[in-house]
């Protein structure tokens, strides 16, 4: 008996990478913003660096001028270059530079902040790098710091010589006083004192004969011809690269935080229901609500394809009663419901379009209702209060404004559907207000055979879809599938919602007022 088969999902990684790239490229404005910010940053840095110059002077530090009693210590270990770096940037050296440049001593700290002292590895060379706003001042500052450091170090060496010779001089003075007073009675003691005196005098001469020079300037600073840092082209290229990285990061964050539906894959992942249709953005600029049977275009063909898939999904008997609803956009649901009803009627069936919105809806004002003077034989089979829609289709399309579905049960919807032509394939398409803001939508979802959810591309959030699915499942309804509306927001019909001018008749003989483009007319049913 074999164990469970584990599918290798490594081949899904390219698809995930492409999907991630598509999500990032959706936010091209943020990428462009990052490029602009990077370019401006490069220009600003280039402008700042354009007025900044730097010059360097080098000093060789002598090791023979350190403390004078270093016996058995190599010359390389007699100088601590780390200590000399700290001394070179000290306040005393900065004050010497201020006096050399004839500046107030209060500016000594400012001069020290422009100085950078480095020591190449395994060398006794100090590099004085000075930065200023002009080439001449840069060279003057670097040379002044190098000379001030050497002067300060020479002064410290001379002070060390004085301290050493003063100490030895005191010892020589004590021995001379003892010899002058003839206090040494024994000859061997006197000889030892004279030998010690000779040694001390020789040590003093040895110390004074040493060179106390601090070092040599091996390279004097000269006025630079170019500002510090990379050139303009390099800074612009660097700014563009950094801006591109910034834009990609911003786009990735935006796509990660954006919960709106941006593709068919995201829609399937959010609801895990089939996508029955994708409505493209039609180039037709007319504001006709009814596309199928009245106008052409790719959007009308998409509605026909949606009706075909819906019929095949529910079997040969037709979809039955379908609720078309959107989470928060009533206009999109009304357009899909009207065109879906027309497309189903185009197959030769009997379709009833019911507006079950409890609020006053303008759907009746936007549909091409058929004017008539007297009832015909077909009109005798219409459900109570319904009228025909003037759509150039093979079947029959009727419309009724329910004014709310709270008083209508599932049996009433079935009864109204059965009033259509006997033996024909009948379908009832119900449209309500937004599902998440109208309580009537949930009541209708419990009474119909299935719910068709209209999702706006880039306008509907995934949280709203999950909430709709949870409410439909809790109410015992059935979610047939979704329709992805890819039209731009400007294509949406945003007409004012007005109350219908006719009164739905509760009996076929009741009078009815129907709205038309040039006014209203009355019909008396016999």
From TrEMBL:
Database matches in SUPFAM superfamilies: P-loop containing nucleoside triphosphate hydrolases
Protein name (record): Lipopolysaccharide biosynthesis protein
Taxonomic path: Bacteria, Bacillati, Actinomycetota, Actinomycetes, Kitasatosporales
Stretches for region Disordered: 496-526
Superkingdom: Bacteria
Residue ranges of the TM segments: 29-46, 235-253
Keywords in alphabetical order: Membrane, Transmembrane, Transmembrane helix
Listed InterPro entries: Bact_polysacc_biosynth/exp, P-loop_NTPase
Keyword Oxidoreductase in annotation: no
Signal sequence, renumbered to the chain: none
């Amino acid at each position: 008996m074999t164990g469970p088969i584990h599918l290798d999902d490594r081949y899904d990684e390219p698809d995930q990478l492409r999907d991630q790239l598509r999500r990032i490229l959706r936010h091209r404005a943020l990428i462009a913003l990052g490029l602009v910010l990077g370019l401006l940053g490069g220009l600003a840095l280039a402008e700042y660096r354009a007025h900044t110059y730097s010059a360097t002077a080098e000093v060789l530090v002598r090791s023979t001028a350190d403390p004078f009693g270093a016996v058995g210590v190599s010359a390389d270990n007699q100088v601590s270059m780390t200590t000399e770096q700290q001394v070179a940037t000290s306040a005393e050296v900065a004050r010497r530079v201020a006096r050399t440049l004839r500046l107030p001593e209060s500016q000594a700290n400012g001069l020290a902040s422009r100085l950078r002292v480095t020591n190449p590895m395994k060398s006794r060379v100090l590099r004085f790098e000075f930065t200023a706003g002009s080439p001449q001042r840069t060279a003057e500052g670097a040379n002044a710091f190098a000379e001030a450091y050497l002067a300060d170090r020479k002064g410290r060496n001379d002070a060390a010589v004085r301290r050493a010779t003063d100490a030895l001089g005191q010892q020589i003075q004590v021995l001379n006083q003892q010899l002058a007073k003839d206090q040494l009675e024994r000859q061997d003691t006197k000889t030892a004192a004279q030998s010690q005196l000779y040694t001390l005098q020789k040590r003093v001469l040895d110390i004074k004969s040493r060179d106390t020079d601090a070092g040599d300037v091996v390279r004097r600073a000269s006025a630079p011809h170019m500002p510090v840092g990379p050139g303009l082209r390099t800074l612009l290229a660097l700014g563009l690269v950094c801006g591109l990285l910034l834009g990609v990061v911003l786009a990735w964050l935006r796509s990660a935080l954006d919960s709106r539906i941006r593709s068919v894959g995201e829609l399937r992942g959010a609801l895990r229901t089939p996508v029955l249709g994708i409505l493209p953005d039609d180039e037709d600029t007319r504001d006709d609500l009814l596309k199928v049977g009245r106008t052409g275009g790719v959007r009308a063909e998409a509605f026909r394809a949606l009706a075909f898939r819906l019929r095949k999904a529910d079997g040969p008997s037709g979809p039955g009663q379908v609720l078309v609803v959107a989470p928060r956009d009533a206009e999109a649901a009304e357009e899909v419901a009207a065109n879906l009803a027309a497309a189903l009627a185009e197959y030769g069936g009997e379709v009833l379009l019911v507006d079950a919105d409890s609020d006053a809806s303008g759907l009746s004002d936007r549909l091409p209702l058929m004017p008539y003077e007297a009832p015909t034989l077909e009109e005798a089979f219409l459900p109570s209060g319904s009228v025909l829609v003037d759509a150039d289709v093979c079947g029959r399309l009727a419309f009724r404004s329910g004014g709310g579905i709270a008083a209508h049960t599932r049996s009433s919807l079935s009864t109204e559907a059965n009033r259509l032509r006997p033996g024909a394939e009948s379908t009832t398409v119900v449209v309500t207000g937004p599902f998440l803001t109208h309580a009537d939508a949930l009541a209708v979802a419990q009474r119909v055979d299935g719910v068709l959810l209209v999702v706006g591309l880039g306008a509907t959030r995934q949280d709203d879809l999950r909430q709709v699915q949870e409410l439909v499942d809790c109410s015992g309804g059935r979610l047939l599938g979704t329709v992805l509306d890819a039209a731009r927001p400007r294509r949406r019909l945003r007409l004012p919602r007005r109350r219908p001018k006719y009164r739905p008749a509760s009996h076929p003989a009741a009078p009815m007022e129907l709205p038309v483009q040039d006014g209203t007319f009355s019909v008396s049913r016999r």
